[in-house]
Backbone:
């Protein structure tokens, strides 16, 4: 027996070395995931915002969810509608996958009454059509609020407080959870401007809302800090002036209304003002809370780079400002038809498009946006640099 063992040992060594080599090669070619057992700040992810990261809250409260509940939404990855406003995954899906989490449920999808197990990896509180300001403010300004979600950012923070109380029974436990979790506050604020504009309100009506939106976001960030949050990421809003639905809505303008990329100058200027004020407010919060990492995420320049240099990322230059799935007309963004209405045919390859339905983006874009946050350079420090070195 001893002789037999001696003869087979070299073969075992060869196999072991080969397996080790393959493992190293595979890990080098795939994005690194977080070792949760060694990471103190990335054990959970809690996210707040609107349809850019809503993974199912809207369709669980709405009695008439409309187009998002029907094909072709979800066709690229899930093969069916899931409540995500895209052809596939959203930004937050790519983030949780990279962190090594399963696709955790949206808050309203959790069992009732919810248990600790439902929120083992965190929770997503984002709601499509959500705003930073509450619905009552828009009602007071005589807007039709039928399409404005009642679940504004403040309500979402309230949901989080309920979850925190459910998963931690003592102050020490709650502080530990807050310190070991990532918080994604946004994107939020775009709908505070979308709703008035699409109800024919002027720039003069909308611009004064910007400081109020920034104040609301800051109050929510402060609420999380007060509860013990240590790592918070806050995205700005993307260039609204390049959104096909806006380009269709304001079609026929003067040549001077458009920049070299074909986007609306005045609307991108409003977006830039929002982001500038948000960055300034986050810097103030950072100075006031030196033990907290508050990171601005630059969605504006990330998305603008896809529009101005589409071929670099595999998008079609001729349709970079067109919806993949729309109602026809200029920019394929006719507002009278929605993506899942009869007669509307989606493009053959959503991965070649920036815009999915004229207002939301494709999975291909969301993957790039998530990567800019996970690995940089559109978030400094990036999520992965923080998680891997916590």
Residues:
């Amino acid at each position: 027996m001893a002789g037999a063992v001696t003869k087979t040992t070299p073969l075992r060594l060869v196999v072991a070395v080969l397996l080790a080599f393959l493992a190293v090669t595979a890990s080098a070619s795939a994005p690194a995931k977080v070792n949760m057992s060694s990471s103190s700040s990335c054990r959970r992810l809690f996210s707040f915002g609107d349809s850019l990261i809503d993974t199912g809250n809207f369709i669980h409260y709405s009695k008439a969810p409309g187009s998002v509940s029907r094909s072709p939404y979800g066709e690229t990855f899930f093969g069916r509608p899931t409540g995500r406003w895209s052809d596939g995954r959203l930004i937050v899906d790519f983030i949780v996958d990279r962190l090594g989490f399963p696709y955790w449920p949206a808050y309203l999808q959790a069992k009732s009454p919810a248990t600790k197990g439902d929120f083992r990896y965190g929770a997503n509180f984002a709601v499509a059509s959500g705003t930073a300001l509450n619905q009552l403010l828009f009602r007071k300004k005589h807007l039709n609020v039928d399409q404005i979600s009642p679940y504004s950012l403040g309500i979402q923070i309230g949901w989080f407080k309920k979850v925190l109380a459910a998963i931690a029974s003592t102050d020490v436990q709650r502080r530990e959870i807050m310190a070991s979790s990532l918080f994604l506050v946004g994107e939020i604020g775009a709908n505070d401007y979308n709703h008035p504009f699409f109800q024919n309100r002027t720039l003069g009506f909308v611009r004064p809302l910007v400081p109020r939106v920034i104040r609301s976001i800051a109050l929510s960030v402060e609420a999380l800090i007060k509860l013990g949050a240590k790592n918070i990421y806050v995205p700005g809003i993307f260039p609204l002036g390049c959104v096909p639905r806006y380009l269709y809505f304001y079609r026929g303008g003067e040549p001077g209304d458009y920049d070299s990329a074909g986007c609306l100058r005045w609307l991108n200027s409003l977006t830039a003002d929002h982001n500038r004020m948000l960055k300034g407010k986050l810097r103030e919060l950072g100075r006031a809370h030196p033990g907290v990492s508050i990171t601005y995420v630059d969605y504006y320049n990330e998305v603008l780079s896809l529009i101005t240099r589409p071929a670099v990322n595999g998008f079609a230059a001729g349709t970079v400002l067109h919806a993949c799935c729309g109602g026809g007309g200029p920019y394929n963004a006719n507002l009278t038809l929605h993506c899942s209405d009869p007669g509307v045919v989606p493009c053959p390859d959503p991965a070649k498009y920036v815009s999915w339905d004229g207002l939301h983006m494709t999975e291909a874009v969301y993957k790039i946006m998530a990567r800019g946050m996970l690995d940089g350079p559109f978030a400094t420090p990036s999520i992965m640099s923080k998680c891997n070195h916590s």
